[in-house]
């Protein structure tokens, strides 16, 4: 798969997951320090790095986030980093 094709697929996948992500984010108060948040049976590490929201599963290495994005407006979100696997997707859905 070419890089451009993978990037388009990642953006489409992110847009499908964004409502679920925002649902979790609105349940917590994000800070600049990484913190573990527990939702149902899933644990996520989240932090607000300036205006960038970083997320990962708590059982992943906290050095690199699984996901990083910036909410520019209600209609526009800037995807900065994306490496979501099936485990993240299923735990995200389970957390809702």
In a few lines, what is going on in this structure?
With 96 residues, the protein is of the alpha+beta class. It is built from two helices and five strands. It has helices at 3-25, 86-95; strands at 35-39, 42-49, 52-57, 67-73, 76-82.
Quickly list its features.
96 residues; alpha+beta; five-stranded antiparallel sheet; 2 helices; globular
Characterise this structure:
With 96 residues, the chain is an alpha+beta fold. It contains two helices and five strands, in the order H-E-E-E-E-E-H. A hairpin with a 2-residue loop joins strand 4 and strand 5 (76-82). The mean pLDDT is 87.
Q: Which helices and strands appear, and what pairs or packs with what?
A:
Blueprint lengths: L2 H23 L9 E5 L2 E8 L2 E6 L9 E7 L2 E7 L3 H10 L1
Shape: globular
Percentage of residues in DSSP E strands? 25-35%
Order of helices and strands: HEEEEEH
Number of strands: 5
Low-confidence stretches: none
Q: How does the major sheet shape up?
A: 5 strands, antiparallel
**How many H/I helical runs?**
2
Task: Name the strands of the widest sheet in spatial order.
Answer: 1-2-3-4-5
Distance separating the two termini: 32 Å
Please give the radius of gyration in angstroms.
13 Å
Percent in helix: 25-40%
Structural class: alpha+beta
Mean pLDDT: 87
């Amino acid at each position: 798969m070419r890089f451009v094709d993978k990037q388009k697929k990642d953006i489409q996948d992110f847009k499908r997951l964004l409502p679920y992500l925002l649902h979790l984010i609105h349940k917590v108060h994000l800070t600049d320090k990484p913190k573990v948040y527990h939702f149902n049976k899933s644990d996520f590490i989240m932090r607000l790095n300036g205006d960038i929201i970083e997320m990962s599963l708590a059982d992943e290495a906290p050095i690199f986030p699984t996901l990083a994005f910036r909410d520019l407006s209600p209609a526009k979100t800037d995807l900065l980093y994306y490496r979501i696997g099936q485990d993240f997707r299923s735990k995200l859905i389970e957390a809702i």
